[in-house]
Automatic annotation (TrEMBL):
This is Ubiquitin carboxyl-terminal hydrolase 48. It catalyses: Thiol-dependent hydrolysis of ester, thioester, amide, peptide and isopeptide bonds formed by the C-terminal Gly of ubiquitin (a 76-residue protein attached to proteins as an intracellular targeting signal). Residues 483-577 form the DUSP domain. It comes from Pygocentrus nattereri. It is found in: Cytoplasm; Nucleus.
Length: 1077
C-alpha cells in the first residue's frame, strides 16, 4: 500500500502509526479513531512533538469514506463527506421532491359525483344530516324559493356572507349542487348556529332542534307553500287514546310528530319496534288515570293511534339509552333488520289501499360508546337510485344500485358480548350501528320533471363567484409548484457540481467548515445562514483538537465558493492546527498512562510499616484511598483549561471519577474531597487533631504523590497538631460538663414538669390554689429536649410568652376557648413552679389565669380572669379568619358514609385496621352535643356573631353547679383524636369550597354507583338539597362526615332524563342558536 507522502518520515514510530491509522479507518468507530489519533503519545515526549504528530492528532490523513460504505456520517473522520444529506441531490430526482404542495386538481370535484363537507373537528353529526336534507329534492327546491334580497343584490367584487339560517342553508345547498370543489366548508352555518366544533353532540337531538328552528324561520316567509314545507315533508299526526276500564269512556289527545322514536331493546326487526310503539299500555296502581266521567282515578288502557304519515318518514332507532348503574348514556349494539320497502298501511287507523315507503337514507354511528365515535350517512340519489356513502370530505358510490353497509358493521368488534349478524332475506338489511332510517313515500307516477332542481340565477352567480375563486387558487398553487420545481432544479445543479469539489485532495490546501452547516446547506427546507467557525476555536484562537469531530475538511476551492456565496468566518486552514493544544494533551495523556503504574507502586509501599528513624509524612486516610481519582480529575481540569467551551472529547468515555449520572464517586466517603490531603486540615489551616483520620507514610511514597499534587499541604511526623483546635476541644468538654450540671439542676427543680406528673388542669381546677401561670408549650418541649440530651442540645435561656399575646399586648385566648382546644398551644404551671422558672430563665411577660369567687351572689358562680386581659379586637379577627379559612379551602378531604334505614353502616364502630383496646378508647370521637356553639360567640337573631363575654372586663362567668361539673368531667374523660379513623364502607373524597353540591354528587356517583337523583345527603342531621350551592356555603368543611342515604331505583324515564342532565358535565345545545327561537 502506498503511504501519503507527508507521512513518510524516518523512524519506525511514524510508519507503525500510519499503518494503524489506515487499518483502523477503513470503517472504524469514533472511539477507535480517537484512540488511533493519540496512540503516538506513548513513545513521544511533549518536547518532541512535530508537525506530523499534530496532523495525526487532527486526523488529516484518515482516508475519506466512499459512498455506499457508510450508513451514516462518521463523526470522528473530518474527511468523511457521506451521509450529510447529499443522497437527495445526487442521481435522478423526482420533481415532487422539490415542493410540499399537493396537486390542486386533487381538490377538484370529479364528474358525476357529489360534494363533501369538511369536518371542523367533531361536526360529522352535522354533515350527515345536511347531506340527507340536501338529497330531499322537494325541500331543496322550496329553500331555493326563499326570498334573499341581500344575495340577489350582492356585489360580485366582495365575498357573500349569509346572515340568517335560511340564507346559510340556501347557499350551502347551492354549493353542494354546482360547486367545482371536491368538498366545501360548512363553518358559516356551524358558526351561525353557535355549535362547539370540538364537542360531539347528540345527533338525534340536533335533527329535532334544527328542523324546529327551520320550521319557525320558514313560517315567516310570505309564500304559503314555504310556510308549511317542513310540515308537508316531515310532519305526521297521531293521538294518545285513553279508555277507562270502569265506564268505557274514551278520550283522545291529538299530537303532531316529525319522527317516530322506536325502542330497539329486545327486538330484531323494524316491524317489532313499530308494533311496540303502538301497543296498548295499562294504567293502574299509582299510575291510574283520572276519568272525567267517573270523577275519580280509574284503571285504564292507553295506546297511540296513527292518523296520517308525512312524505318523508324519519324513524329514530333509540340506540343511546341511560344506564342507571353507571349514571351515563350507553349505546345498544343490537342488530335490527329493516326493509327497503316499508308498508305502513297495517299501522294506520284509517285503512288506506296503499301506503308504502322506500328507503332513502341510513344514518350510521361508528363506535361502541355513546360519547365518542363517528357519524356517516348512506343516501340514495333520487334521480338515479344509486347509493352513496357520505363520510365528511370523502364520498363513495356503492357498486350497482343496492345499499351496501360494508365494513360499517365490523367497527363494533370491541363489544364484550358479540352477536353473530343474522342473515337478511332479499330486500332487507341488517345493522347494529344504524340509528336513523329515512323512508320516502312512493307515489303512483314519478314526475321526471321533479327530479331536477333548478337553481335560481342569483344563487348560481354566487356559486360561479366561488368557483372562480377556486380556479384562481388552483392556478396560484400550480404556479407555486412550478416555482419550487425550478428552484429545486437550479439547486440540484449547484449542489451536484459543488459536492464534487468538496473533498480535499492530497497536497492541496484545505479548510474546515461545520458539518451541521453542510447538512443544512443540503437540506433545502431550512434557511441557509452564514458559516460560523467561532465555536471550534481553542484558547489560543486556533482549531481545538477536541472539536475536529464536528468539522469537515474540504478543498480550498470549494471553501472559496461557499464563503463567497454565504459569508461567515473565521476561515480555518492548515495554519490553524494548534500545536500548543496537542503538546498539552500529549503531556496529560502520558501522565494518565503513568498514573496506573504509580498507583500500584504507591499501594504496595504504603502497606509496609514505617521503620524507626525514617522520616514520615502525615497523609489523610481518605486522601490515600482517593488519590488516583483526585489525580485524574486534576489532570482533566488542566486539560479543560485549554478549552474555552465546556465540550467533551469526541469518543471520550466517562472516567472513573464520574458516574453515568454525572456525579463524582468518592469511594464511600460522605464529603466530596476537592484537593489532596485537605481532609487532615483543620479550619485554621493547621494539622487536624483527629489522629484516627490520618496515617504516616514514608518519604518515598510522599515524593511520588507530590509529583501529582505539588501544592498539597505537607505535614512531617514531628509537626504538632493545631493548638487552637486543641484549646477549643478542651473548652467544649468543659461546656458540656456545665450543661450536664445545669440540666441536672433544672430537672431536679422541675421534676414533675419534666415527667408530666401532677399537672394542673382547667377542666378540673385544683382546690388549693386560685392562680395558675401560662407558658408556651413550645418552651416546655424545647426545655425537655435539653434535659434529655444536654450534650447535643443548646440550653434554654428564656421564656417567650409574647407569642401568646397580640400586637397590643393582650392575651389571645379565653377560658372557654382553652377548654375547647386552644390549650394545645399552652402549658399550665403551679405557682411554685413559676417561681423556679422566673429564677432559672428570663421571662419577657408573665401570663396568669385567676379564679375569683363571686361574693355578690349565692349561686356558687366563679369568675376566671386572665392577666394580661383578653384583646377583644384581635380575638374577633382571629376567629373571623378561622371561619373564613373553613369556607375558602381547596383540595381538602371529606368523608362519605353510606347509611341504611337512617342508621349508620353496620360495623361502623370497627375501624378498618386493628388496634389495642387502650388505643381504641383513646381514639374515640368526642360526642357532638346538640346545639353546640362556638365558645366565644353565639348566633343572634340578626345573624351577627357577637363575643360571649361581659362588657367591662375579660372575666367570664361559669356555672359551678353539678350539671356543669358533670359535663366538664365527661368531656375531659375522653381525649380528642386529631386523626380520622376511616370506617368500612366509608370513602374519602377530595373537594374544594367553591365546588357545587351537584359536582359533589357526581363524585359520589362514581365512588358508590348511586345516581345523583337517588342520593340524599346530610351533615349532622342537616339535609343538603341545593345542587347549585357551593360546599362552603352549605357548611361542608374539611374532615366533614357526609351521610349518604340511597333511594331505591324507580323505573321513571323522566327521572332518567333529569339524572342525565345532572350526571354529565356537557351542556348539550345550551347557548347555541338551535335554542334561540
Amino acid at each position: 500500500m502506498e503511504l501519503p507522502r507527508r507521512l513518510r518520515w524516518n523512524g519506525e514510530i511514524g510508519i507503525r502509526m500510519t499503518l494503524s491509522f489506515v487499518f483502523v479507518c477503513r470503517m472504524a468507530p469514533r472511539l477507535q479513531l480517537e484512540k488511533a489519533a493519540w496512540r503516538w503519545v506513548d513513545t513521544v515526549k511533549p518536547e518532541d512533538v512535530t508537525q506530523e504528530h499534530i496532523e495525526l492528532a487532527y486526523r488529516i490523513a484518515v482516508p475519506a469514506c466512499k459512498r455506499g460504505t457508510c450508513r451514516r456520517n462518521c463523526k470522528g473522520n473530518p474527511n468523511c463527506l457521506v451521509g450529510i444529506g447529499e443522497h437527495t441531490w445526487l442521481g435522478e430526482i423526482d420533481e415532487n421532491a422539490f415542493h410540499n404542495i399537493d396537486d390542486p386538481n386533487s381538490e377538484r370535484r370529479d364528474k358525476n359525483t357529489f360534494v363533501g363537507l369538511t369536518n371542523l373537528g367533531a361536526t360529522c353529526y352535522v354533515n350527515t344530516f345536511l347531506q340527507v336534507w340536501f338529497h330531499n329534492l322537494e325541500l331543496r327546491r322550496m329553500l331555493y324559493l326563499c326570498q334573499n334580497s341581500r344575495a340577489e343584490g350582492h356585489n360580485a367584487e366582495s365575498d357573500y356572507e349569509p346572515k340568517t339560517i335560511c340564507e346559510h342553508l340556501q347557499y350551502l345547498f347551492a354549493l353542494l349542487q354546482n360547486s367545482n370543489r371536491r368538498y366545501i366548508d360548512p363553518s358559516g352555518l356551524v358558526k351561525a348556529l353557535g355549535l362547539d366544533t370540538g364537542q360531539q353532540q347528540d345527533a338525534q337531538e340536533f335533527s329535532k332542534l334544527f328542523l324546529s328552528l327551520l320550521e319557525d324561520t320558514l313560517s315567516k316567509q310570505k309564500d304559503p307553500n314555504l310556510q308549511n314545507v317542513i310540515q308537508q315533508q316531515f310532519c305526521g299526526q297521531f293521538s294518545y287514546v285513553t279508555v277507562c276500564n270502569q265506564c268505557g269512556r274514551s278520550s283522545a289527545l291529538p299530537s303532531r310528530f316529525y319522527e317516530l322514536e322506536l325502542n330497539i331493546q329486545g327486538h330484531k326487526n323494524l316491524t317489532e319496534c313499530i308494533t311496540e310503539f303502538l301497543k296498548e299500555e295499562k294504567l293502574d296502581g299509582d299510575n291510574r288515570y283520572f276519568c272525567e266521567s267517573c270523577q275519580s282515578k280509574q284503571s285504564a288502557t292507553r295506546r297511540i293511534k296513527l292518523h296520517s304519515l308525512p312524505r318523508t318518514l324519519n324513524l329514530q332507532l333509540m340506540r343511546f339509552v341511560f344506564d342507571r348503574q353507571s349514571g351515563h348514556k350507553k349505546k345498544l349494539n343490537t342488530f335490527i333488520s329493516f326493509p327497503e320497502v316499508l308498508d305502513m298501511a297495517p299501522f294506520l287507523e284509517a285503512k288506506e289501499e296503499k301506503c308504502t315507503y322506500e328507503l332513502s337514507a341510513v344514518l350510521i354511528h361508528r363506535g361502541v360508546s355513546a360519547y365518542s365515535g363517528h357519524y356517516i350517512a348512506h343516501v340514495r340519489d333520487a334521480r338515479t337510485n344509486d347509493w352513496y356513502k357520505f363520510n365528511d370530505e370523502e364520498i363513495e358510490k356503492m357498486e350497482g344500485k343496492k345499499l351496501q353497509l360494508g365494513i360499517e358493521e365490523d367497527l363494533a368488534e370491541t363489544v364484550k358480548s358479540q352477536a353473530r349478524k343474522p342473515k337478511s332475506s332479499k330486500g332487507y338489511h341488517c345493522s347494529r350501528n344504524a340509528y336513523m332510517l329515512v323512508y320516502k313515500r312512493q307515489t303512483e307516477e314519478e314526475d321526471q320533471t321533479q327530479m331536477n332542481v333548478e337553481m335560481p340565477a342569483f344563487l348560481q352567480r354566487l356559486v360561479d363567484q366561488d368557483n372562480k375563486k377556486f380556479e384562481e387558487w388552483c392556478s396560484e398553487m400550480a404556479d407555486m409548484r412550478k416555482q419550487s420545481v425550478d428552484k429545486g432544479k437550479a439547486k440540484h445543479v449547484e449542489v451536484k457540481e459543488l459536492y464534487e469539489l468538496l473533498p480535499a485532495q492530497e497536497g492541496e490546501p484545505y479548510e474546515f467548515v461545520p458539518v451541521e452547516w453542510l447538512k443544512k446547506w443540503l437540506d433545502d427546507s431550512t434557511a441557509i445562514k452564514a458559516i460560523d467557525n467561532s465555536q471550534f476555536l481553542c484558547s489560543h484562537g486556533k482549531l481545538h483538537p477536541d472539536r475536529i469531530g464536528e468539522a469537515k475538511r474540504i478543498s480550498h476551492k470549494a471553501a472559496e465558493i461557499l464563503f463567497s456565496r454565504y459569508g461567515g468566518g473565521p476561515r480555518i486552514d492548515r495554519s490553524f492546527l494548534c500545536g500548543d493544544c496537542v503538546t498539552r494533551r500529549c503531556q496529560v495523556l502520558r501522565l494518565k498512562n503513568q498514573l496506573n503504574e504509580d498507583y500500584r507502586e504507591v499501594t504496595n509501599l504504603a502497606k509496609a510499616q514505617l521503620k524507626s528513624g525514617d522520616e514520615g509524612f502525615w497523609v489523610g486516610k481518605a486522601s490515600l484511598r482517593q488519590w488516583r481519582q483526585l489525580a485524574l480529575e486534576q489532570l482533566e481540569e488542566e486539560e479543560e483549561e485549554t478549552k474555552h467551551t465546556n465540550c467533551k472529547t469526541n469518543g471520550e468515555k466517562p472516567t472513573s471519577a464520574t458516574t453515568k449520572d454525572g456525579l463524582k464517586e468518592n469511594d464511600g466517603d460522605v464529603d466530596e474531597m476537592k484537593t489532596f490531603n485537605e481532609d487532615i486540615l483543620c479550619c485554621h489551616g493547621g494539622l487536624s487533631i483527629q489522629e484516627s483520620e490520618r496515617r504516616l507514610v514514608s518519604a518515598e511514597v510522599w515524593s511520588k504523590l507530590k509529583v501529582y499534587f505539588p501544592n498539597a499541604p505537607e505535614f512531617t511526623q514531628q509537626q504538632e497538631a493545631c493548638q487552637q483546635c486543641m484549646r477549643l476541644e478542651r473548652e467544649g468538654k468543659e461546656n458540656e460538663a456545665l450543661n450536664r450540671m445545669m440540666a441536672s439542676e433544672q430537672k431536679t427543680s422541675l421534676l414533675n414538669l419534666f415527667h408530666e406528673k401532677n399537672r394542673p388542669s382547667l377542666q378540673k381546677w385544683p382546690q388549693d390554689t386560685d392562680i395558675l401561670y401560662i407558658v408556651p408549650l413550645f418552651f416546655v418541649d424545647e426545655w425537655r429536649k435539653f434535659i434529655r440530651r444536654p450534650a447535643k442540645s443548646n440550653p434554654v435561656s428564656s421564656v417567650g410568652n409574647s407569642i401568646l399575646l397580640c400586637p397590643h399586648g393582650g392575651f389571645m385566648f379565653t377560658y372557654d376557648s382553652m377548654l375547647q382546644g386552644d390549650a394545645q398551644h399552652i402549658a399550665l404551671l403551679w405557682p411554685a413552679e413559676w417561681e423556679v422558672v422566673c429564677r432559672l430563665f428570663l421571662v419577657d411577660q408573665p401570663i396568669s389565669i385567676c379564679r375569683i369567687h363571686d361574693a355578690t351572689q349565692d349561686n356558687g358562680n366563679v369568675l376566671y380572669h386572665t392577666q394580661p386581659e383578653l384583646c377583644r379586637e384581635c380575638r374577633e379577627g382571629f376567629i373571623f379568619q378561622q371561619q373564613r379559612d373553613l369556607r375558602e379551602y381547596a383540595q381538602a378531604t371529606v368523608y362519605v358514609r353510606k347509611v341504611i334505614d337512617n342508621k349508620r353502616m353496620i360495623k361502623e364502630a370497627a375501624p378498618e385496621f386493628s388496634m389495642s383496646g387502650s388505643e381504641a378508647e383513646d381514639e374515640k370521637e368526642e360526642p357532638k352535643v346538640e346545639g353546640e356553639k362556638d365558645p366565644d360567640f353565639n348566633q343572634s337573631e340578626d345573624g351577627a356573631k357577637r363575643q360571649k363575654m361581659s362588657e367591662g372586663s375579660s372575666t367570664v362567668a361559669l356555672s359551678s353547679g353539678p350539671a356543669a361539673t358533670t359535663a366538664a368531667v365527661g368531656k375531659s374523660g375522653i381525649r380528642r383524636s386529631m386523626r380520622h379513623r376511616k370506617l368500612r364502607g366509608e370513602k374519602a373524597l377530595i373537594v374544594s369550597a367553591n365546588q357545587t353540591l351537584k359536582e359533589l354528587k357526581i363524585q359520589i356517583m362514581h365512588a358508590f354507583s348511586v345516581a345523583p337523583f337517588d342520593q340524599n345527603l346530610s351533615i349532622d342531621g342537616r339535609c343538603l338539597t341545593d345542587d347549585s350551592a357551593t360546599l362552603g356555603s352549605l357548611g361542608v368543611f374539611p374532615e366533614s362526615i357526609i351521610c349518604l342515604k340511597a333511594d331505591e331505583p324507580i323505573a321513571d324515564y323522566a327521572a332518567m332524563d333529569d339524572a342525565y342532565q345532572v350526571c354529565l358535565p356537557e351542556e348539550g345545545f345550551k347557548g347555541t342558536g338551535l335554542l334561540g327561537h
